[in-house]
Amino acid sequence: MPRAGKVQIIKYAPPPPELPIYGKVDPAEVSFIGRTNYVAALEEKKFIFGIKRGDRRRHLYIIGKSGVGKSKLLELLIRQDVAYGYGLCLLDPHGDVIQEILDFVPKERIDDVVLIDPTDVEHPVSFNPLKNV
């Protein structure tokens, strides 16, 4: 427990060697999401790290309380996917993430966007997932 008037030094372990770090991996193969809390000795440099695209294909489970950044994390991942020309599917039950993403999509990729809004009664979308079952 820290005491008043005392300087406390906290040592963190360096990032594991297999952690995808910016500058050491192909940026097209990694979605960068944050910085390590490890500070290299005497450099005071934190490492930008990410999730390998192959690992993302195995699904992500993002949980947390309101306001901790779940939507911002998704937005960051999606922006990188769009920037590198990858496709994606976003199911946005509240509609706030899609608005941020639509503002980011470059003009040359806007025709790649298919927006299905189930609340749009003037342009309803119909499909039967049980057809031919």
Task: Characterise the protein shown here.
With 133 residues, this protein is an alpha+beta fold. The protein has 2 domains: 8-60, no CATH class; 65-117, no CATH class. Helix content is 20%, strand content 8%. It has helices at residues 53-56, 70-83, 96-104, and strands spanning 30-35, 48-52.
List its traits.
alpha+beta; 3 helices; 133 residues
Q: What profile does the largest beta sheet have?
A: 2 strands, antiparallel
How many domains in all? 2
Cα-atom radius of gyration: 21 Å
The N- and C-terminal alpha carbons lie at a distance of 62 Å
Mean pLDDT: 84
Let me know the number of strands: 2
**Binned strand content:** 5-15%
What is the N-to-C succession of helices and strands? EEHHH
In DSSP terms, counting alpha (H) and pi (I) runs of 4 or more, how many helices?
3
**In oligomeric terms, what are we looking at?**
single chain
Strand order of the largest sheet: 1-2
Low-confidence spans? none
**Outline:** elongated
Q: Roughly what percent helix?
A: 10-25%
Which structural class should the secondary elements be placed in?
alpha+beta
Write the layout of secondary structure elements.
Layout: E1 30-35, E2 48-52, H1 53-56, H2 70-83, H3 96-104
Antiparallel strand pairs: 1-2
What does this entry show, briefly?
The chain has 133 residues and is an alpha+beta fold. Helices cover 20% and strands 8% of the residues. The mean pLDDT is 84.
